[in-house]
Specification:
2 helices; globular; mainly beta; single chain; 11% helix; Neuraminidase
Length: 309
């Protein structure tokens, strides 16, 4: 009898854990999760016809979502906001800090208390740089321009950071491999001012690089490049951090055969879901998503084929 009671309580415990997991699961606008082939995300809800969407991000708890709309001629950029309340997503509206400004490329901090993005005034003096808003009891605060050395007198944007606060971004500042754009990162030495460093020739090239998406544990980096040998006008590439902290030679993510980079298309704006299960990106005006299992598959292929240098 005692054994039966223990089994019953164990079963009840398992059911409780399953129920809690389901309760805490992120609702991706009711969409069927993708497999190893990229599909349009939330068609008719987020990805709308005759609109250009990019850069979707979810808060760490999965209850808030921000994404971009761009004008077809790039004359404006807006950040939209929607919240998961009473088991439904609210209709997307332009974020308060976006109204009247050129705002794009949102990124959540690991604790969900800060949101980073590109920002500029259509007619005002603000530089087109990386800005940030902090969460307050009343909502999101006023945009704050990040200081040097992350921002410079040149074009800086596409903020991404690890769970430990190491920042990756794109910039065309001096010290890179061209005047179009390279991937840079912060470099902190104890007791010294914050410094930034170019990721070097292994990652960057003489072509345009932008849109870094760093893994929370810094184990891999996805970025956009127009380097020769790609499939489209711009492609997503991935590089993995080795044990000595150097990077593997970047490979085109279409190595996965997932339908990420396609001929004559522009693929960019990679982001990760807060649960780490999905990769989002934009292509030809829509947002797509695919299982991050393809990243594990690419990693196995990269290390197996000894593309490491």
């Amino acid at each position: 009898m005692k054994t039966k009671i223990i089994k019953v309580f164990s079963l009840l415990g398992i059911i409780s854990l399953i129920s809690a997991a389901q309760e805490n699961a992120i609702d991706y606008f009711g969409q069927t999760p993708p497999g190893d082939s990229a599909v349009v995300f939330a068609p008719g809800i987020i990805s709308l016809p005759h609109r250009v969407e990019q850069s979707i991000v979810f808060s760490p708890d999965g209850k808030e979502c921000f994404f971009n709309e761009w004008a077809a001629n790039y004359s404006y950029a807006k950040i939209y906001y929607t919240k998961y309340e009473n088991k439904i997503w609210t209709p997307p509206v332009e974020a308060s800090f976006s109204v009247g400004h050129f705002a794009s490329s949102p990124f959540f901090s690991a604790d969900g208390k800060r949101l980073y993005f590109h920002y500029a005034n259509y007619t005002g003096p603000e530089p087109y740089d990386i800005w940030m808003v902090q969460r307050t009891a009343q909502g999101w605060g006023e945009p704050f321009h990040l200081p040097s050395p992350i921002n410079s007198d040149y074009k800086d944007g596409c903020y991404s950071e690890t769970k430990d606060g190491i920042v990756y971004f794109a910039s065309n500042r001096p010290g890179g491999f061209d005047n179009k754009g390279d991937i840079w990162r912060t470099h902190q030495i104890t007791g010294q001012p914050l410094k930034v460093e170019n990721l070097g020739a292994t990652v960057n090239s003489s072509a345009w690089e932008s849109g870094p998406c760093i893994a929370p544990d810094e184990s891999y980096l996805i970025f956009v490049s127009e380097r020769p040998g790609g499939f489209g006008h711009s492609d997503l590439y991935i590089t993995f951090k080795k044990e000595d902290s150097s990077w593997t030679a970047p490979v085109n993510m279409e190595m996965s055969k997932a339908g990420i980079n396609l001929k004559n298309a522009a693929t960019d704006s990679a982001t990760l879901s807060p649960d780490g299960r999905y990769l989002f990106f934009s292509r030809s005006g829509d947002i797509y998503w695919v299982s991050t299992k393809i990243i594990d598959d690419i990693k196995k292929e990269v290390f197996h084929t000894k593309i490491i240098k």
